[in-house]
Request: fold
Amino acid sequence: MGFFVRFWGVRGSIPTPGPRTRRYGGNTSCYEMRSDTTVLIFDAGTGLRELGLSLVRSPPPAGLELHLFLSHPHWDHIQGFPFFTPAYLPTTTIHVYGSEKNENYQLLSGQMANAYFPVAFKDLSARIVPRSFTGDVVQAGDFVVRRFDQRHPGGSSGFRVEREGRVVVFATDCELDQLLLDPAAARDRPDARRTLPASVLAPMRDADLLIADAQYTDEEYPKRVGWGHARANTVVDLALQAGVRQLALTHHDPMHSDRDVDAMVLTAVERVRAAGAELEVFGAREGVTLRLDRP
Reply:
């Protein structure tokens, strides 16, 4: 049967509508993963609004049951939730996943306080259910989702999603360059392979698709150390070491135009070619749908 992944928001930090970002898109982080029976949503940035409109165009008779996973509650990853049409329908159930205390659920509701938004969280008609991981694993419909920690200010979660032998990893907002085994080599010899610990590689191993934060070029990163995002070339090396088949570079910098993203993708492709590997690399773009069938 298979399932598909669709990109609804691929921008980082702040929405960037306009002619410079028309091809890749200006909405912030939001990704849909769907089988015939289950809908998973990763992040609730401004791309969530368009996803919501799509979902209510032909809702199932019994209503929508949605599974929402948040990498972390920084504003660009939650700001679309108040504009998510299914949340206003009594026939919708939204499972919001988090830790045992589920701070994500609390912060989703907090941004809808009267000082910030005219509709209160308690006035939403949908059934919104906080759910916790059992350890770091949860069954969401017919998907198994495994959570793992990432290096980011305030922390963030990545997710490894498995179904019918296929694996998709969602790993945005992770500063991989702070985790390198030999950071001096990466600094002094940019073309050298950047090696990462086995613990970082483990959740990515043999993924059919890795959707990963690749916000900065090598030249930009030194002025942004500690901001919580990775260099695209470092993400490529991660994917090569983990045996990933397809790599979607995402969380595009708000200052990057479509041409800038094109240049980053070209550099990434050339790095793969120089390594003699078969990894497919592309820039995540709003509206693109990828189908993953059984192996």
About this structure: Residues 258-274 form the longest helix (17 residues).
